[in-house]
């Protein structure tokens, strides 16, 4: 099993460090043809407008949909969650639509409103997940097929639909590996098919 | 070193900007061009460094009206500069809600001995450095990102290369020194001992390390990345060139594909004229911006 980390911009190196620590074979993805060789893709944090530009201009759109169709796993953190959503607001922008969620960008405000908090997830159990929110988005709507794995302030912040996981915070900036481990299990199932 | 939650959140934003281009802009229209071209953030300025250099006089924090206009124009992070040591300009920018403050040698220093105590602020700071000692002093004061100083507004990459090499060489050197030599090294660098030990152990700066000062072409940007920078600032290089939108896009592409000559060739084609540029070795000592800061 091989994991890709979208490396057109953002904190892809932080995700890479986590994967290395977990002993997984992984590669930085900068070209769409690389998607053929992987069973799971991480869309990291960063600026969604910048990443979106690369996805559109470098021909990533179709190959990403194909990866999803053949059952590939996805983990999107912050900007990555924005890219996975069906609908994006503040402002409106195109997105991959791989998860039936609506996301509002920069919904907590500017950097001054960025924060760290701890929340107990009913799915993962104790200890609480440490959540680093950086100019984070809010998931304003989840479709019927979407499972909410954790909430914060009344909003879903970690959700799963099929083999897609989206977090509005940054598990890659903490020492808690449970979310990455769950993603790897989904990718494992994909590669076993 | 201090790695509390506040500092982690500050460094967190710097992490998100990695692999990207931060562009100097002086109005809402330029900010939109930068965002459209794929910039990860913009630096709101009254004048770009090349104009500051040409016009002379005291260069201060940009007008609030201008920064606000830029903040309203784009959805990406907005940075703004304060004078070295001018903590009240920083208090004002924090109140305004800018996402990052650059305590910058490009503006006229307000204090010739002390920099701002950046731990007192909720907003993250970036500071320029020419060598490892300077970088670690700024991190000790609370900077969440370091950039090379280069020579701003020169369109000449030579100083940024010098500063990047100097920082990277010093980091590599620390990693092979025996522990008992680190205190003397800390004294020599003029840097906090704990930070020197951290760098010796990890082989990198504890905060992201970006390049700035004189980047004018996609090749310049990729050169900085190959030398170890994690993202780049482009100041005068974009809006002082013939076709800013195109050059901006090309530099964004060059930073992502910095290790891929085929993509760099593509990014470098048909760009129009770059900014004119200055021979830094012919600048008088008092014209150098990089010697500001202590």
Regions with little confidence, pLDDT below 50 for 5+ residues of chain B: none
> Fraction of residues of chain B in helices?
40-55%
Strand content of chain B: 5-15%
- Judged by helices, strands and strand pairing, the structural class of chain B is alpha/beta
Using the alpha-carbon principal axes, give the shape of chain B: globular
Number of strands of chain B: 8
Which key features would you list for this structure?
heterodimer, A: 193 residues, alpha/beta, Rossmann fold, seven-stranded mixed beta sheet, three-stranded mixed beta sheet, 5 helices, 26% helix, 33% strand, B: 294 residues, eight-stranded parallel beta sheet, 13 helices, 8 strands, 44% helix, globular
Descriptive overview:
Chain A has 193 residues and is α/β, with parallel strands linked by helices. In chain A, 26% of the residues lie in helices and 33% in strands. Chain A has one domain: Class I glutamine amidotransferase (GATase) domain (Rossmann fold, 3-Layer(aba) Sandwich), CATH 3.40.50.880. Chain A contains five helices and twelve strands. A seven-stranded mixed sheet of chain A has the order 2-1-3-4-12-11-10. Chain A has a three-stranded mixed sheet with strand order 5-6-9. Chain B has 294 residues and is of the alpha/beta class. Helices cover 44% and strands 12% of the residues of chain B. Chain B is built from 13 helices and eight strands. The model of chain B has no long low-confidence stretch (mean pLDDT 95).
């Amino acid at each position: 099993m091989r994991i890709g980390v979208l490396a057109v911009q953002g904190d892809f190196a932080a995700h890479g460090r986590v994967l290395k620590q977990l002993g997984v074979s992984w590669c930085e993805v900068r070209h769409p043809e690389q998607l053929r060789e992987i069973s799971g893709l991480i869309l990291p944090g960063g600026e969604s407008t910048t990443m979106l530009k690369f996805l559109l201009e470098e021909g990533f759109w179709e190959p990403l949909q194909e990866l999803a169709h053949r059952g590939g796993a996805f983990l999107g953190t912050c900007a990555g969650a924005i890219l996975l959503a069906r609908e994006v607001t503040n402002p409106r922008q195109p997105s991959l639509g791989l998860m039936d969620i609506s996301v509002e960008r920069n919904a907590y405000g500017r950097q001054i409103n960025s924060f760290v908090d701890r929340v107990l997830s009913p799915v993962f159990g104790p200890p609480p997940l440490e959540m680093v929110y950086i100019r984070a988005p809010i998931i304003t709507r989840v479709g019927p097929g979407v499972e909410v794995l954790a909430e914060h302030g009344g909003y879903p912040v970690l959700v799963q639909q099929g083999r897609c996981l989206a977090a509005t915070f940054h598990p890659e900036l903490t020492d808690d590996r449970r979310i990455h481990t769950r993603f790897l299990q989904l990718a494992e199932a994909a590669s076993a098919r | 070193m201090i790695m509390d939650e506040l500092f982690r959140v500050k460094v967190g934003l710097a992490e998100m900007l990695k692999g990207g281009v931060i562009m100097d802009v002086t109005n809402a229209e330029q900010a939109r061009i930068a965002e459209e071209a794929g910039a990860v953030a913009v630096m709101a300025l009254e004048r770009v460094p090349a104009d500051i250099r040409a016009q002379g006089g005291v260069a201060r924090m940009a007008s609030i009206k201008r920064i606000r206009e830029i903040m309203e124009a784009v959805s990406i992070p907005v940075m703004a500069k304060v004078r070295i040591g001018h903590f009240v300009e920083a208090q004002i920018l924090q109140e305004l809600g800018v996402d990052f403050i650059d305590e910058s040698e490009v503006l006229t220093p307000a204090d010739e001995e002390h920099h701002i105590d950046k731990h007192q602020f909720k907003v993250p700071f970036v500071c320029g450095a020419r060598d490892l000692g300077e970088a670690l002093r700024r991190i000790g004061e609370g900077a969440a990102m370091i950039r090379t100083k280069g020579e701003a507004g020169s369109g000449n990459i030579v100083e940024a290369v010098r500063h990047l090499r100097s920082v990277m060489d010093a980091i590599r050197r620390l990693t092979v020194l025996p522990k008992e030599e680190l205190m003397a090294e800390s004294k020599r660098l003029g840097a906090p001992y704990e930070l020197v030990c951290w760098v010796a152990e990890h082989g990198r700066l504890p905060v992201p390390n970006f390049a700035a000062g004189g980047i004018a072409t996609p090749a310049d940007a990729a050169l900085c990345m190959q030398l170890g920078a994690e993202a780049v600032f482009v100041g005068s290089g974009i809006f002082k060139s013939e076709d800013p939108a195109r050059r901006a896009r090309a530099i964004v592409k060059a930073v992502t594909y910095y290790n891929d000559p085929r993509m760099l060739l593509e990014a470098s084609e048909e760009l129009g004229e770059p900014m004119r540029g200055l021979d830094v070795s012919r600048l008088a000592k008092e014209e150098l911006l990089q010697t500001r800061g202590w």
